[in-house]
Amino acid sequence: ALALAQGSEEPAAPVLTLAGGEAWSQTGTVTHSVTSADDDQQTLTLHLDGDLAGGPASYPWAGIPAQLQLTAGDGPRTLRARLEDPAGNLSAETTAAVTVDLDPPQIDSLQVGDGSGYVTSADGTTYVSVACSDSLARPGELSLRLLLGEQVLYDGAYRSRISVGLGENEAKKAISATCT
Prior knowledge:
The chain has strands spanning 15-18, 24-25, 29-35, 45-50, 57-60, 67-69, 75-84, 94-100, 106-112, 125-133, 143-148, 151-157, 161-165, 175-179. By secondary structure, it is mainly beta. β4 (45-50) and β5 (57-60) form a beta hairpin.
């Protein structure tokens, strides 16, 4: 049970927003905002706990940092926040979550046509098969860019098989792929 100082009320629960409300962060640092419905916010202290680098922290309202460093590595992170008034009354706890994804997608394989190294169609059209992986990517989140030298063959949503035109001339050609 929460003990209230005589004649006072517990502060309103804070509203904690991480990474602008986005569910994902590609850095280990997140911007955040904290708001309170209390009339006298300047007297409040913010207590943060959870996946915060360096462990739990407390900040006077005027000294709340603009960014928070989260614990190292990829994966989901949760922060818990409570407000405390000068009498020591604590608000209800509020949580906010974000997933940190520091590792870029990997290209596991790239194959042109049947994998023989030759394109036999008269117009130079063939398929490029690409396998990209990212354990934290959501469906539809990955994108793929295929280049033939500086010529863009494909730039869009990741698909594992793309039809491309390599031109009609007979020459050795190199295709590069980037998955993001």
